[in-house]
Amino acid sequence: MASRKEALARRANRVRRHIKSVANGRPRLSVHRSSKNIYAQVIDDVAGKTLAAASTLDKDLRGSLKTGADIAAAALVGKLVAERASKAGIQEVVFDRGAFIYHGRIKALADAAREGGLTF
């Protein structure tokens, strides 16, 4: 039986492989969730560069958050990454949840990014 770490890596690779096949040149909004923080990046896989990024560790958000590990913090990160992506001229992305299930903080970040102007 595979370890938990191997199973998560396998699930993330499966999701990422599917996303790259349907991306059609759109950048990828990649989300990582830890027990204390949440991170989001808009990545151009063709060039291999990060176009926009936000996390609960940013100075803009750190002072206004009670904790970086709740739904409110994820929503603020989603709005911030959408704002930074729109400044970079990005309107359409593909959402990459990685190995995380689409609920809770991941869903809150995605909904806030949509409200911020990103389309996916």
Mean pLDDT reading: 94
Please indicate the count of domains. 1
Query: Would you identify the regions where 5 or more consecutive residues have pLDDT less than 50?
Result: none
* Percent of sequence in beta strands: 15-25%
For this structure, the CATH topology is: Nucleotidyltransferase, domain 5
Distance between the termini: 35 Å
Name the structural class. alpha+beta
How many helices does DSSP assign?
A: 4
Principal-axis shape equals globular
Largest sheet composition? 4 strands, mixed
**What's the CATH C level?**
Alpha Beta
Q: Major sheet: order of its strands?
A: 3-2-1-4
Q: What would CATH call the architecture?
A: 2-Layer Sandwich
Q: In total, how many beta strands? A: 4
In helices, the fraction of residues equals 40-55%
Topology as H/E string? Answer: HEEEHHEH
Computed CA radius of gyration, to the nearest angstrom: 14 Å
